[in-house]
Amino acid sequence: LTRKLTAVLVSRIYSALPSMRNEIMRKLERTSSELNDIGYGAGETEAEINLTLMRLVFEYHSLLQDASIGRYVDKRLWDPKVRLCTRAQNLYDAFKTDIAATRPDFENTVVKEIESEIRESRGRELPGFLNPRIFESRVAVFVEDWRVASNKLVSSARRVLSDVTNDLFTAVAPEFPALRLRVRDITASAM
């Protein structure tokens, strides 16, 4: 009876071992992945971790400030994709071009239209003054023409700022992927 029970027990152990081994390997891989996501080197104590975090934030702030004013002294700012000031200037130049494309012919068309509207509203304003409604309607037309270009500028600027901030924090803290993801989420929610 003992031999029979031992044989049954051993056979069941042998049949269960591969699935147990696979489950342990899966859990070990998942745990290793989670540990890799957290990162290494932040410190052992809470004070060391806080000091590391403060160092990273200071370094990130310094790089972002330099990138935003166009001071590309740090080697990490030599990459054209993190040169925030240059990229913002390029967006602004494209915006100016888009706005210039909507510029009406002031000399011929707009001046004549305004003169016509002034003649039609004569008597409703003081001599030498322009009717404010004429001015407001003209400004509203021009601003509406700029809406597409303005929206394009805002969305492009948000995208560039998001890209640059993420790339800069990756340069500052490559060993902390989970922290980088958190910073990316914070910047995304701020924009």
Task: Characterise this structure.
- By secondary structure, the chain is mainly alpha-helical.
- It is built from six helices and no strands.
- The protein has helices spanning 2-38, 46-69, 84-101, 106-120, 132-172, 177-190.
- Helix 2 crosses helix 5, helix 3 packs antiparallel against helix 5 and helix 5 (132-172) runs antiparallel to helix 6 (177-190).
- The chain is elongated, with a radius of gyration of 33 Å.
- The mean pLDDT is 84.
- What is the gyration radius calculated from CA atoms? 33 Å
One letter per element, helices H and strands E, the order comes to HHHHHH
* Broad structural category: mainly alpha
Q: Main β-sheet: number of strands, strand sense, barrel status?
A: none
Question: What is the number of helical segments per DSSP (H or I, 4+ residues)?
Answer: 6
Unreliable stretches covering 5 or more consecutive residues: none
Number of DSSP E strands: 0
> Helicity, in percent?
over 70%
Mean pLDDT comes to 84
Outline: elongated
Terminus-to-terminus distance: 74 Å
Approximately what portion of the residues adopt beta-strand conformation? under 5%
Strands, helices and their partners?
Blueprint: H1 2-38, H2 46-69, H3 84-101, H4 106-120, H5 132-172, H6 177-190
Helix pairs in contact: 2-5, 3-5, 5-6
Question: Which terms summarize this structure?
Answer:
single chain; 191 residues; mainly alpha; 6 helices; 78% helix; 0% strand
What is shown here, in short?
With 191 residues, this protein is mostly helical. It has helices at residues 2-38, 46-69, 84-101, 106-120, 132-172, 177-190. α3 (84-101) packs antiparallel against α5 and α5 packs antiparallel against α6 (177-190).
